[in-house]
Design goal:
Layout: E1 2-3, H1 6-16, E2 19-20, H2 22-26, E3 34-35, E4 47-55, H3 67-80, E5 90-96, E6 107-112, E7 130-137, E8 145-147, E9 158-160, H4 167-184, E10 193-198, H5 206-216, E11 218-219, E12 250-251, H6 266-271
Parallel strand pairs: 1-12, 2-3
Antiparallel strand pairs: 4-7, 4-10, 4-11, 5-6, 6-7, 8-9
Helix pairs in contact: 4-5
C-alpha cells in the first residue's frame, strides 16, 4: 500500500488508522494498532513575508488582474502564446544570506510582478501597479506538529506550526526582509519604484519589523516532515520509505523529509 497524501493528510490518515502516538489516538476513541510516536511530529514549513513597492509605470501584472482583462490575457495566450498569461507570476528569484557571516545562503526571495493585498491573493485585485519580494528562511529550526481534531474522517486536523518558537528564526527572517527591501532600493528600480506599500516606511526598528512579520507573514505552502525518514524514536519510515514495524506500507510524499529543503519543495517531492 502506498500512502501519498502529503505532510498534512498522511499523518492524519495513519492516526485515524490507529498508527501513531497512543496518547493522541486513544483520546478520540480509536484503537491503537501500531505505536509510532513520531507520526505528526517534526512539522516544518517556510514562513513568508513580503516587501512591496508601488510601481510608477503601468508595466506590472496589475494590468491583467481584473476579470475581463484576465479573460483577454487568457485568450491572447491561447491564440498567440504571448502576453501576461504566458509568464509566471514569479519571474525572478534569489538565494541570499541574512547576515554576511552565514556560511551559505539561508534566505530565498521570490520576485513577483504585482503587489497583492496578501501573500495568497485572497483579498482580490490590487488597487495599483506594484511589485513584490516574497522572503522566507530556508532552514527554520522551529518544529510543530499535526494531530487529530476528532475521529471523523471529514474533520480537518489540528495544526500547530510553532513558527518562530526558536527565536533565531525570527531574527534571520527579519534580517532577510531588510535585505529584500535593500534590493528594491537599488538604482535599477529608480524609474519604477513608488512608495513602499509593505512593510511601510514607518517600520524600521528590529521590534517594528518583527511585529510586522508576526502580523503579516503566512505559510508559503511547504509543509514537510510529519512522517520523517530515519532510525530514531520519532522516525516513521526507513530509508526505503517503509513504515517502521509494518509490512507492505510505504509513505511517499513530503512528509518523509527529515529536514525541509533549502527552497521550494515541489521538485524534491516529485523526486520522492
Amino acid at each position: 500500500v502506498i500512502l501519498s497524501s502529503g505532510a498534512v493528510n498522511s499523518p492524519q490518515i495513519l492516526m485515524r488508522s490507529g498508527i501513531g502516538d497512543p496518547e493522541e489516538i486513544k483520546k478520540h476513541g480509536i484503537q491503537v494498532n501500531h505505536e509510532l510516536k513520531g507520526v505528526g511530529k517534526n512539522l516544518q514549513d517556510h514562513f513568508a513575508v513580503v516587501s512591496q513597492f508601488a510601481c510608477t509605470q503601468p508595466v506590472t501584472l496589475h494590468r491583467s488582474a481584473g476579470f475581463f482583462s484576465t479573460m483577454l490575457a487568457g485568450a491572447k495566450y491561447l491564440i498567440t502564446g504571448t502576453g501576461d498569461a504566458a509568464n509566471p507570476p514569479c519571474v525572478g528569484g534569489a538565494f541570499i544570506k541574512s547576515q554576511p557571516e552565514k556560511e551559505i545562503p539561508d534566505i530565498q526571495i521570490h520576485y513577483v510582478s504585482i503587489a497583492m493585498q496578501d501573500v495568497h491573493g485572497r483579498e482580490g485585485v490590487p488597487l495599483e501597479h506594484g511589485f513584490s519580494n516574497l522572503v522566507y528562511l530556508c532552514r527554520p529550526q522551529s518544529r510543530g506538529h499535526i494531530t487529530l481534531k476528532s475521529s471523523d474522517p471529514n474533520d480537518a486536523p489540528l495544526m500547530y506550526p510553532n513558527y518562530f518558537s526558536v527565536e533565531q528564526d525570527l531574527i534571520d527572517t527579519r534580517n532577510g526582509l531588510r535585505e529584500a527591501r535593500r534590493v528594491f532600493m537599488q538604482p535599477i528600480f529608480d524609474e519604477y519604484r513608488g512608495k513602499e506599500i509593505t512593510p511601510g516606511t514607518h517600520v524600521q526598528s528590529d521590534q517594528e519589523i518583527e511585529e510586522f512579520i508576526r502580523s503579516a507573514g503566512e505559510t508559503i505552502y511547504h509543509p514537510v516532515g510529519t512522517c520523517k525518514m530515519g532510525n530514531d524514536e520519532n522516525s516513521v519510515v526507513n530509508n526505503e520509505l517503509k513504515v517502521h514495524g509494518l509490512q507492505n506500507l510505504r509513505i511517499i510524499d513530503a512528509s518523509i523529509m527529515p529536514n525541509i529543503t533549502s527552497g521550494n519543495t515541489n521538485a524534491p517531492t516529485i523526486m520522492i
